[in-house]
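sorry for the late reply, my laptop died twice this morning and i had to redo everyting from scratch. anyway the thing you sent over, i finally got around to it. pasting the sequence first so we're on the same page, its 247 residues, then the predicted structure underneath. double check i copied it right bc i was rushing
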Amino acid sequence: MSAIERYFSLATDILSDVLATQKDKMEAAAQKLKEAMLAKQSIFAFGCNHAGMLAFELFYRAGGLVTINPIRAAGMMLEMTPITMTTDLERLDGYGKILLDNTPIQKGDVLLLHSVTGRNPIIVEMAQLARERGIYVIAITNMRSTLAVPSRHKSGLRLFEVADLVIDNCGVAGDAALEIEGVPEKTGPTSTVVGAAIVNAIAARTIELLVAENVTPPIFVSANAEGGDEHNQKVLAEYADNIFYMR
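ok and here's the structure:
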């Protein structure tokens, strides 16, 4: 098989592992998001750099929940030059507190955090402080990767040790999963494709649970579809109190 076929096969296998082993945790996450929405609480998502792609996957897109708020942080969106500065920033003590202090997140809200290793100060600090403030923390991480490395946070803890709910993306240690003969390094990272499937499945289940509560879910329609703009304006206005990316 070519690398194309083998990568698709690996991704499919990992997705199957996630469904087999993490379904109950994804269900719990969806239940928590439903409860937050029914209680008029807010939902936030964050990750550093490539891990942050899951926050953007959930945010302002066709079929997505209107109420997902990404936490966008300077230096954490792959926008810096040199790009290596982003690595320094996610290891910076105190940056997680700065982000949380400047996010309109409150007691009773939900915070979804994504980090493959969960070892760096920014992500651990955000999880710790959020829980101290009565915010429910859902972590998506990779247990093989995180168990293979020590924490860089002063507490010695990693994300999975400070979250309320932990979902394993079931990838390989180091994320890159594909071996190519004659190349010492692996390629084909899987955390993004698998993580996107996890968060979209959670969002879909949340919508299903809201319908069971006789609530009309606030879902974006493609702005390029006929009537999309009008629909989106309506749901944005209806849920304005829980939407912070329009302010």
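The first helix runs from residue 3 to 38.
thats about all i looked at so far, will dig more tmrw
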